[in-house]
Amino acid sequence: MRQLTPQDASILFSDTPLANANVTFIQIHDQGTVPGGVVRFKQILAHVENLLPKAAILRQRLLHVPFELDDPYWIADEHFDLEYHVRHIALPRPGDWRQFCIQVSRIHARALDMNRPLWEIYVIEGLDGIDGLPPGSFALLTKIHRVAIDPERPGRIVELLHDTTRRPRKAVPPAPWFPERPPSGVALALRGALRTALAPLSAGNPLARLVPVATAFARDILRPQHATATRFNSVISPHRVFDTARFDADAFERIRGLVAGASAEEAVLAVIGGGLRRYLQAHDELPAPDLTALAADPDAPPGSPRRQRALGTAIAGPLARLQAIHEPRVAAEGPAAPAGLAGCSVVEVPAPAGPLYLCGARLSYLSALLPIADGMGLVFAVTRYDGHVAISPTSCRELLPDPQVLTQCLRAAVQEYLALVPAAAAPARPTPAGRRRPAAGTPSPRRPSARSAATGRPAAPADRPRSRAPRR
Question: Is residue 198 in a domain?
């Protein structure tokens, strides 16, 4: 039995009916690399079962202290049922990208059963309507609560599920497992009361949990200038939306080369800033002050808190925007945040450098849906895997009714930057068939359709994209 840390307990108690702390990893696999050409659900079920001894958290549930006198504990679930956690579904025809985004958004939005281990895996078939995917591809959705994620290795669940070679792991009989018996409610209550008496001001004290709420309330009352910056800085709904813009990783290497000393992370921020500027302009909602993003500082040690990073949304010129994003890192002597309001959050999702395989099926796409909250209703997951960078916004339906328009704006921002790259520095790479393909972010010659996946949707025009979303 292991008690939650005060930080994890604060995450747990911040869950509301409208916002939970679920993280959903999206993994799409190509069955063409599988010996025999097919991965069956029972193989995946057996594969996950063999992983259980390597990650104790997958069999553990939360045990709450009566009257919340103390922080909860992790304890083995004596009624653990693997087939409850691993599920099998399929998209209805035609199985296009828009259907897939809607389905994964719904799954992500649903709260986990807090009386069971805090994770679920969905095997999703019927993706043949998505352009750019090999026939027979299937997706694996791994949904897990933030308190069950190791902060030192947040991507460990993805690593555990996959191999580095296409040869599937040899199945072994599952090891015997015996859950521990939970203590009685009386024993937990006495232990919690004793801890509260000995440490009345600790984070585990129920009264201490009210301090952040009271502080936020006082800040809002005493500092009214922190009003809503954009539509995304308001109250969220329980309905989630998701989409992805996917690019060649070398596109961001070329973008960073436009400003001496700029990093690939700053190039991503510049693209997000340019895309957000286009989107808000299209809705006549672009604020005059520059927006910032809560993002990790690449110069800070791992695990350091995120800080506000410039996005350059107030700057029309793409080159000047990248320069403005880069300069604070060069000139600042401390972690002071740039001026402005945080319009979104940007999270780098850990991903392995080389290709991965699930039961022999090659992982071809990796991204994530992340938690949002009141006041921060837009988060971008950035994933670097297998030579690609995926930028995936998560929001709610009321704040972002047209997520495909936002991803079009991101593609247009990349195209705008690549147009500034000297021709000699941006050669087109040949495809395996020997044909030349356009640079990342350039539009497709054919009309977009609902079948288009993250890699196949054309970029928005260089001016303002059109949207049918209501103006606010």
Answer: yes
